[in-house]
Each structure stands twice: as C-alpha cells, then as structure tokens.
Amino acid sequence: MTDTRPVPIIDLAAQLARIRPEIDEAVARVLGSTAFVGGPDVHELEREFAAFCGAAHACAVGNGTDALQLALRAYGVSAGDEVVTVADTFVGTVEAILLAGARPVFVDVDEATHTMDPARLEAAITPRTKLILPVHLYGHPAEMTAIGEIAARHGLPVLEDAAQAHGASWQGRRAGALGHAACFSFYPTKNLGACGDAGMVTSSDAEFVARVRQIANHGAGRQRYEHVVLGTNSRLDTLQAAILRVKLRHLERWNAERRVRVALYADALRGVPGVVVPTERTGARSAWHLFTIRVTERDGLAEHLRSRGIASAVHYPRPLHLQPALASAGGRPGELPVSERLSREVLCLPLYAELDPADVERVCGEVRAFQQRLVHA
Ligand SMILES: Cc1ncc(COP(=O)(O)O)c(C=O)c1O
Question: What residues of the chain score a pLDDT lower than 50?
Fold first, then answer.
C-alpha cells in the first residue's frame, strides 16, 4: 500500500516540545517581572546574538522587514537614492527599499547559489547608488569577498539581508559580520525563530546601531519626550527576547542537525534524473534554512509529493521585479533571466532539525519515482 503519512515542510511543535520547560520558565520570568518592553532580556539577547555573529553591536527590532527599513534609514537612504539588490528574495527585502523612498536596482543571481552574481554587480552601480544589499538566500551566504571589493571601490556600504542565514558563514566569518551591517528576521519558521514577529540589526559600527535604535524608538533624544529625528515604533517584545535567548542556546546544534539531513538528501538524490541538488560554494557554509532542489516539472512534482502526504514549497514563484506591488521599480520580463528561470524550477523539500531521517529517504524515493516516470514517459 502507498505510504501517505504526512511529512510537513516544517514542524514547530516538534521543536517546541524539545525545549518546552526552558521556554515556560523564560515566559514565566518575564510575566513575573512585568517588564514587557525593553529590560534585561532584550539587552542580553542583543549582546548574545551579536557575539554569536561576531559583530560588536546589535539592536533588536520588531521584525526583519523593519530591520531592513531601519538600517536603510540609518544609512540615510532616501528619495532619489538607488539600492542595488536581487529580485530572487522575499518581498520584505524590496519593500524596505521602497518604504525608505529609494529605488531598487536588481542584479541577477548566480545560478548555483541563488545569490547576487558579483560579475553583474558593477554594471548596476550608478552615481545615485547608496548601498549594496545582497541576500543570503536559503541560508547560503552571498559571495561577500567579491561584493565587498566592488563596494569598497565605489565607497559603498554593504548591508546583508541575513534573514535566512543565522549561523551561516563565509570564509570562516558568520553572517551578521560579513558586511557593514546585517539584518535578521526571527519569524517563527526561521532557523532561529521567535513565537511571533521579531528582528535584529547587527553591526560593528556603534554609531550606526545607535541611529537604528533611535529611529526604532520614536527618534528619542536624551530627555523624555524629546524626539530628535523622525522615528517609528519597532522595539522587540521582551517576551520574544526571552524566548529567543532560550532558542539561541540551541541554534548551533539545530543547524548541525539540519546539515546531517541535508547530507542524507544529497546522498539519496544523487543520480536522480533531472534533479539539481543545492551545494555550497567553496568557502561557504550554509545555514540550510531551506533545502531547495531544481526540476523542470516543478508543479507536477509538488503535486505528486502532495498526493503522498509530503509537503513542499516554492520560494519564490515570482521574482520581485515582476510583482505588481513593486511595479514602481519598473521591472520587465526577460530582464533577469536566471532569477526568472529559477522561479519556475525551485522546490523546497521538508527540512528541520527534528525531521526523521527515514522521512528524508521517503521524500527522496517519491522524487525519484516521479522523475524516473518523466524520463520514461
Ligand atoms: C530574505 C528575507 N528578507 C526579509 C524578510 C522579512 O522578515 P520579516 O518577515 O521578519 O519581516 C524575510 C523573512 O520572511 C526574508 O526571508
């Protein structure tokens, strides 16, 4: 009989079950303190996460999109400026640029890693460029050496979108300390996820982080009710900070457990016709936020897996230059051929630290069955 037991794309209940007493203790402590905004947990999380990344400073904020928007504003990005980025990413990357009043300029991605192709970067830089914003998509770090060299030649800061890359590294240094600053999301499904929305900006530039903090806290000056710049409210909840501090203690182990499952996937999918398996570029260590294969009959494979109880996901079905909401950025079909092709071929398979290795085998068996049928059709 066909096995159709469900395999979810992610299992947050299984993760929570492993650490429930620690989470309960942290939540009870915050409730007992009644310090719900700010307080020692937020400060300690900033210190601990900055240290994890190898950055000197961090500012906890409301979510990853805010982290990006606040960082852009703290760099002075505003109307008339251009920010060079990629279209093969989550919408938040580009929302932040547009919400800061600037124009996104898209560079196509490298096919193997789905990250900014440094060979195409220089041509996108103009006198209006204010900043370079690469994305460590799926947890794989962008080619930060080449990007950093080009940015330095033009005197431009590099802001990492590290929303999917907690614990990833490039040439031995962690995401969060690879550019001038970095932005993280702690959306619940991320490698380090809160029990709600949360985000962080990291940098080794203390003044920059102070500007982010000021904008995130209503542009507050030294005196109470003195507002020296136009700010907003994007402070991190203390409850989320306390929960994230618990989870941060487990992150390295969880990332290692993801890596074991990725190796199982890679072994089991070797030689399956028509499947491109993700790899790491030399010098890169992915956080393996997502395990994303490429196939030409993507929708057919997703449907086959679904019929067997196996979840999959498409990150992302439409590159951002072709999203109606971002039409003001002026994208045209054909402009970013690699990003556009990848958006038709990518399929993310279940991946999380608690994923049963036997389920990896089962998922791969179903992928093989579908692909072989294609070959023989
Ligand atoms: C690459 C990328 N950038 C930005 C964001 C935005 O983060 P958030 O959802 O916390 O606003 C996300 C997360 O979803 C992301 O994956």
Answer: none
